[in-house]
Amino acid sequence: MQVEFEKVDAYEPDRTLKGKLRRRLIRLAHRRPAQVSLERPMVSFSFDDAPATACEAGARVLEARGLRGTYYFAAGLAGRDGPMGRFASGEDARRLHEAGHEIACHTYSHLDCGQSSRAATLEDVDRNAKSLAAWGAGEPVSFAYPYGDVAAPAKTALSGRFKTLRALHHGLITNGADLNQTPAVGIEGEEGFAQKDRGLRIDGVASLGETVDRDDRGCALPLDHDLGHVSFPAACAAACRPGPFRPSGS
User: What are the helix (H) ranges across the chain?
Assistant: First the structure.
């Protein structure tokens, strides 16, 4: 029997001065500094919300090159329609897990961790973890804040529970980066196409040249949501070591 869900609407962040200041200041508080020791640059491809296109086209492109990605699932969205089309199902999550991809946590209801209480955050994350386990998708060790937003109650509640808590601000994971709010490299939309001719590229999607080069010793987390049709050049595999990021000593 097919279950009908209400469509998920697009999100609008808090654009007030208070909201902007909170997002800036939280990056300075409740930090968990990373100790990164890499012999070469590292890239970990990740997909938030797990739209069906990312689980199908994205996985197909990565697997064809012997690579795997990280998929941040919010179980409450599974099978529903949203701004980027249909979200993947629990069956998709199990298939990806069995193929060697990492299934990570994104809260159950796609909770705004910039507004939620400590108790509400923990309840929603626990519910998501139980759903992923019931799907046969393993126990999540990585987490991404929905909308990239977080405030002190959620950040302190989740500190230490996951190996990494990923946000959306631009940057590399290098020594001293905050594992409770790690940066990422967005590769979608108009900004993702802007640097198309520089350095290490994800062909037709974005340039990472200004962020990662062969002399860097950090980790870049290219972030996307849905994928229609993309291709990754062989240079990406040659220059960087893809896979889920694991900080030294974790």
Answer: 17-25, 52-53, 59-64, 90-98, 118-135, 152-158, 189-193, 234-239
The pLDDT of residue 120 is above 60: yes
| Chain CA centroid to CA 128, Å | 15
pLDDT score recorded for residue 65: 86
Where along the chain do its domains lie? 20-239
Nearest residue to 226 via CA among 37, 19, 56: 56
CATH H-level, domain 20-239: superfamily: Glycoside hydrolase/deacetylase (3.20.20.370)
180 within 8 A of 155, measured Cβ to Cβ: yes
Phi, psi of 75 (to 5 degrees): -60, -30
pLDDT in tens, 187-231: 765 444 333 333 333 333 333 444 444 445 557 666 655 554 343
Tell me the whole-structure pTM to 2 decimals.
Answer: 0.79
DSSP per-residue letters across 178-233: BTTSEEEEE--HHHHHTTTTSSSEETTTEE-TTT--TT--SEE-EEES--SS----
Please give the Cα distance from 210 to 148 (Å, whole number).
22
- In the numeric block, which tokens belong to residue 51? 């739209």
Report the half-sphere exposure of 236 (CA within 13 A, side-chain side).
24
For residues 193 and 206, the answer to whether their CB atoms sit within 8 Å is: yes
Instruction: Write out the two tokens for 3.
Output: 């279950």
134-144 tens-digit pLDDT = 999 999 999 99
